[in-house]
Every structure is written in C-alpha cells, then in structure tokens.
UniProtKB/TrEMBL annotation:
Protein name as it appears in the record: TMM8A factor
Protease as UniProt keyword: no
Keywords: Cell membrane, Membrane, Transmembrane, Transmembrane helix
Lineage: Eukaryota, Metazoa, Chordata, Craniata, Vertebrata
Region of interest called Disordered, as start-end residue ranges on this chain: 279-305
Pfam families found in the cross-reference section: DUF3522
C-alpha cells in the first residue's frame, strides 16, 4: 500500500477569557477521504512579561460542526439536545510554550472543528491603555496520513486481501448506496501460515468526536464471523480495518464479503407538486402513482392492499429547502404542513444540511398532533431525528439509533400533542425525520389507523433570537459563519435562558435611574460656571449632562431602555462631551487671555473629535488632552506667580476650600473609573464617577474676575434713570 502524508495549518489566534461563545477561538479543518491517521499538533504560548501567570487552555474537538461547550456550567434551553464535547487541557506554567499531540486513527472524512479558550473572565472592566494584559496564543496544525488506492469491497463479491503484520492493519472501503436498510459484513476465511486458525479484529466505521460509534468484530479460529448493521450511512464510503491480533509477524490472508438489503421507498411526491410551491395544498392521498414511477400505499385501502404495503419499508414526503439568509433555512412540505403517519411503515422527511455552511446554527423541529385525526386514543406517534441515515424501525429501536449515529427521539400522543427538538450546531450531513404510529398492544392493533402530524422544521442562527435579554451575533472564521448569543442583565446560557444570576426588573430600573440621574450633579457646576461668567464652559457641561444621560438610558441591557437617537451617535457624543469638559475646565483654571483660551477651546475640541473617531476607548484620548491642558495651566500659574512674586493662586482659602477638595475628588473619580469598575458593579461605580467628576468641576472652576460684578438682572433690565459710576482710577503722587 502507498501512503501519502499531508500537512494543514492555520494562523495563530489570540486567546480570550471565556464569557460567551464569541470568546472561543474556532478553527476549521477538512480531513480528506481515505485518511487512516490524523495527528493534531496543538501549540499554546504566552508572553514573557511579569503580568503573565500560570494559565490553563481548554481545547474542544468535534466532527461535522463547531463543538457545543459550556465552561460556565449554565443551563441550556428546554428541549435542546446537549452532548458533552471532547476536550483536553493544556497548562502554561513555567514553560512559555506547550506542544501537545492528539492522534486519531481512521478519522471520519469531512469537516473537523477545534475551539480553544481561557478560563472564565473575571468581569473587570479595564480601560484600554492603563494596563498591558498578557498575550496567550494558540495554533493547531493537522497532519494526515492518507492511503492511496484503498481497496474497494464490492457488494456481494468476496474479496481476498493480506494483512502484512500486526503493525500494518488492512484498510478497505465499501460504498453504501441510498435506501440501504441493512448491511451484512462477513469474514468468510482467515489463513495464517498455511493454517486455518488466526485471530483478527475487524473495525467498521470511522472515529467521530465527541462520540464514536465504531463497530468492532473479533474473530478467532476458523469460524465465520459476521456482523449486521441496521441503517448504515447512505451514500457514503464506509471504512473497514482488519487488524492482526497475533504476536508473530506473519501474514494473514482474509476473505470478506459485504451485502446490502434495500429499502424500497414509497413516495407521495410527483413532478406536478413542484408547480405549486407557493400554495398550501393537501396533496394526493397515499396510493396515487407518481410520475417518477415510485409506488405509494393507498391510506384508505390499507387493509385490502397488504401485499403492496409489504413491498416497501418507508413512505417519503417531498420537502423543499428554502434558503432565507445566512444560516437560516426553512423546510416546506409540498403536500401541506400535515403529514400522514401509519404503523406499518415510517413516514420519512429529508432535511438537507449538507452545504457546509449550515452547521453554525440551530435545527428546530416542531411536531403538533391533530387529535381529531387519531383513530386510536391510546396510540403514540414516535419520531426520530437522525443524521446520515434514517431510523427505519422506530417501533423496534426506541432509542432512535442507527448504525453509526445516536438519533434524537420525539413523541406526541393524545395526552401530549406537541413536541419540540432543538439540535445545537447540527453536523454537516443529510438529516432525516422518521415518524411512525405505535400502539401499546402491538402493531396489529393499529394496522388500519392513521394520524395527522403537523411538522415545522427550520434552521435558525439563534433559537428564539436569544430571547429578550440576549443578542444574536454572527461570528466568522475565515469563510465559515456561525452564530452565538451574547447575554445581558445577568442572564446567561446558550440562548440566554438561564436566570440564575439575572437582574430583576426593579434592579434594572434602579441601575437606569442611577446612571442617568447621577448626571444631574452637573447642575451645580453649570450654575457655578454661569455665576462666574464662564458661559462657554457652562454650555459644554450642559452638552455633556444631556448626552451622558440619554446615552446611559440607551446603553442599559434590560427592559428599562430609552434611545432618542442611534446608539453609536449617543456614545460618541457622550465620550466627546466628557473629554471636552475636562479640557475646558483645566484651561479655564489656567487664566490665560480670553482670545488664546477660546482658540485652545476650539482647536482642542477638533483634535479630540478626531482622536475619538480613531479610537473611542483609548486611554490617551482622555489622558492626552488632560496632560496637555495641565502643562498649559502649570506654565500659566508659574508665569502669574513670577509676575506677582508670590504663590498663585495667592489665597490660602482658595487652596484649602476649593482646589484641594476638587483635586481630591478628581483623583478618587479616576481611581474608581480605572480600577474598580466591573460588569456587576458598573451601575453604581460609574454613577459614583459621574458624581465625583461633576462635583470636582464645581470646586475647580476659578472665581470671576475682580472687575466684574455678579449677575444683577434688576440693574441690567431696568428702564429708569441711573447714577453713573466713575470707574476711573485715582492716581496718587508719592513725594
């Protein structure tokens, strides 16, 4: 045999602490056909700075779709199917890099996904630029060993092959045609060194993660070994591996044969059905012969046509797939939403999810039983949702299992007429829905019975659009798209249905009131600014108070939300007003000439607006204008002090009762903003930030100039004679 090795790699990604699925870094690989060995090289590394500590990286694997993970231990939505993902942990301690190998023999061909993430996020809100977080990187590489010209086992034809040694097993493959009900594999002979007795192990199927359903057959001696597989995967290659269990390096000669039992389908579909795709129609009754030549069973003549009923094992209903949007598909039944269900054979619906872009959403199947159509009150309609091949005998296999897949069961009856199933991230394959009528006293009781079941099936990016307290986000990894829910207001879970830590409506209202009404603390600063003739500064504070109030009213995660304009516009105006308020306050304290002050006001505002457009959350957008304004203020104060030959401001009362309290409030506000805010305490720590900043502005604003009198509206708006005041300075000569 000739083996070829191939290598696949993807660029490294920066890992994030986990709070929702978008924090997990996803890698998508495609394993080629006839692969006999798959090896993953997982490379995790971290930075070398003192901020880097010991860290554990969790890596999840899954075949066919992104892995469904739950690192936070939250609840999944009701009726959702969850199977734990296969994962390993990589520890980054003293070593800067950790390389781990994962080997998989006879992997399934197709899409494989890897998701990696760090532990749960601490929830702290970090200001960009205040600290340098440690960088953790992850990169997977894939090596495959592929067999060239793998022997093909033809159905019904015995094939003889040689197992060279225990270290080199034999690999063959067989193609499973569509509508295969049963596959029968038989090892007819095994010869070792001219003797009849030998020991081999036959492995049928490929490995899939997180669950693998390989079938193993151990054969010893000269007795024939056989194994039957019910409902093997349709229209796929099935790998068969034969291993020598002997100790000697002797060749084994084995003879094997595979045979299939076909399942003849009966269909109610015809070419004429496709002329009425946009109409809801009942469709022909079972028994009308379609133009395609498939034979169906007359529902009303079930008892008189027993021979025809036994000529096929399933009834197929025509289904049309409608692509609505990205990861959004609707399945329409041509014969109407209701399908007839019988006890003699299953009713089969085909749900195609094999485009390669359908595995990033959620498959939802809804069943509703029409009680008036149910002939027997104690009968039950059993349904099975499975991938790769349908469940052809739901009455016999109550667990809905096929040869290599564990299906998902559903049931409806007169006592429970509705059932729902949610398959999270369904794997890329052909999916099937099988329905059959089950009677408690045996199938003979309901041979003539019939039930009508309304089937609603669709693929959606996020189930229920993540609910009221979640946002459905479309994520992308190269050309692959998948969806995830980002929860808010304390809600959590895959679809934001876990209310363990959810905020109550009263708590949401309290948070909104604190974050909005705390901006009213700018009113004292506005009054002080107007009293001191700082009209431009008062206008800036009014602007900041208005947009900060309505930005936080729109930024709330819960139901207490009010948006007077676009969210992005409100956020930009809030950030701009906050930085400009600090800018004009410090420049006002510097007591520079008016013309220079207003020029700096305008020029600084334009530069701040530009920097916020480039990076809205950068720390230097606030620190840069503050530091530059402080340099101007210190230079102006030094100039005034040198000119007066004394300290400036000269009054000790100004320092004790105004400047020192204002500076203290400002430093406390900066400390709260930079180091104390978390996702949980944001609504009151940020409110404290509002109060402290607005209060510090009221203390730091300089007094009015001495030659200006306070506002006297009675004097300015009067219409009578006034005594003119002589403002001339008296000059005294010193002799």
């Amino acid at each position: 045999s000739l083996y070829v090795s191939e290598y696949f790699s993807q660029s490294a990604q920066k890992l994030s602490f986990y709070s929702w699925y978008g924090n997990a870094k996803l890698f998508h690989f495609h394993v080629p056909e006839d692969t006999v060995l798959l090896r993953w090289l997982l490379q995790a590394s971290r930075g070398k700075g003192p901020e880097c500590t010991n860290m554990e990286v969790t890596v999840h694997f899954r075949y066919g779709a992104p892995p469904v993970i739950n690192p936070l231990g939250t609840r999944f939505p009701a009726n959702a199917t969850v199977r734990p993902s296969y994962n390993i942990s990589m520890t980054l301690s003293s070593a800067v890099q950790n390389n781990t190998f994962v080997n998989i023999t006879t992997p399934a061909a197709g899409d494989w996904f890897i998701a990696a993430h760090l532990p749960e996020a601490a929830g702290r809100i970090e200001v960009k630029g205040f600290s340098t977080p440690c960088t953790y990187m992850f990169q997977p590489d894939m090596f495959v060993l592929r067999l060239i010209d793998m022997p093909v086992l033809e159905p019904g034809v015995a094939m003889t092959q040689t197992v060279v040694s225990p270290a080199k097993p034999l690999h063959v493959k067989v193609f499973v045609p569509k509508y295969t009900a049963t596959m029968w594999f038989e090892l007819q002979s095994c010869v070792a060194n001219e003797q009849k007795a030998c020991a081999v192990r036959v492995v049928l199927g490929s490995i899939t993660l997180p669950q693998s359903f390989q079938r193993i057959l151990t054969c010893t001696g000269n007795v024939k070994c056989s194994l039957g597989l019910d409902s093997p995967p349709w229209e796929k290659w099935l790998q068969i591996m034969v291993e020598n269990l002997g100790t000697a390096n002797a060749e084994l000669s084995v003879e094997m044969v595979a045979s299939f039992t076909a399942c003849k389908p009966g269909s109610t579909s015809s070419f004429l059905n496709f002329s009425s795709l946009n109409q809801s129609q009942t469709g022909p009754r079972p028994g009308n012969t379609g133009t395609g030549g498939s034979h169906a069973v007359p529902a009303g003549e079930a008892s008189r046509n027993t021979s025809d009923q036994q000529s096929f094992c399933l009834q197929s209903q025509p289904v049309v797939r409608e692509d609505l949007d990205v990861v959004s598909v609707r399945y329409r039944l041509l014969n109407g939403p209701s399908v007839p269900v019988y006890s003699i054979f299953p009713t089969l619906l085909f749900l195609g999810l094999n485009t390669g872009m359908d595995s990033g959403g959620s498959l939802v199947v809804n069943l509703l039983l029409n009680k008036t159509s149910l002939s027997l009150a104690n009968a039950t309609v059993l349904a099975c949702v499975s991938a790769a091949s349908p469940v052809l005998s739901p009455n016999a296999t109550q667990n809905c299992s096929t040869a290599f897949f564990q299906g998902y069961p559903l049931s409806v009856s007169a006592s429970s007429t509705e059932a729902m199933l949610i398959v999270l991230y369904p794997e890329t394959s052909d999916w099937f829905l099988s329905l059959q009528l089950i009677c408690p006293r045996g199938q003979g009781e309901c041979n003539n019975a019939e039930a009508k079941v309304t089937v609603v099936a669709y693929l959606t990016p996020c189930f229920n659009d993540c609910g009221l307290y979640g946002q459905c986000s479309l994520l992308r990894r190269h050309g692959y798209l998948y969806a995830g829910c980002s929860c808010k207001a304390g809600w959590s879970g895959w679809s934001c249905t876990d209310d363990t830590k959810a905020q109550s409506v009263s708590a949401q209202n309290l948070a909104t009131l604190l974050l909005t009404l705390s901006n009213l603390m700018f009113l004292p600063a506005i009054v002080v600014a107007v009293y001191h003739y700082c009209l431009v500064e008062a206008s800036v504070y009014t602007y900041t108070m208005f947009f900060s109030t309505f930005y936080h009213a729109c930024d709330q995660p819960g139901v207490a939300v009010l948006c007077i304009m676009d969210y992005d516009t409100l956020q930009y105006c809030d950030f701009l007003g906050s930085v400009v308020s600090i800018w004009v306050t410090i420049l006002c304290m510097s007591r520079v000439k008016k013309i220079l002050k207003y020029v700096l006001f305008l020029l600084g505002t334009l530069l701040i607006a530009m920097s916020l457009q480039l990076d809205r959350r950068g720390v230097w957008n606030m620190m840069g204008p503050c530091l530059f304004a402080l340099v101007i203020m210190i230079a102006a104060w030094v100039y005034h002090g040198v000119k007066r030959r004394g300290c400036y401001p000269s009054s000790w009362k100004r320092w004790v009762f105004y400047l020192l309290p204002g500076i203290t409030l400002a430093f406390i506000a900066i400390s709260v903003y930079a180091f104390m805010e978390t996702n949980e305490n944001y609504y009151y720590t940020h409110s404290i930030w509002h109060v402290l900043v607005a209060s510090s502005v009221a203390f730091l604003l300089p007094p009015r100039e001495k030659h200006k009198k306070p506002w006297a509206w009675s004097q300015k708006l009067t219409c009578r004679y006034q005594i003119c005041q002589n403002d001339r300075e008296e000059l005294y000569a010193v002799t």
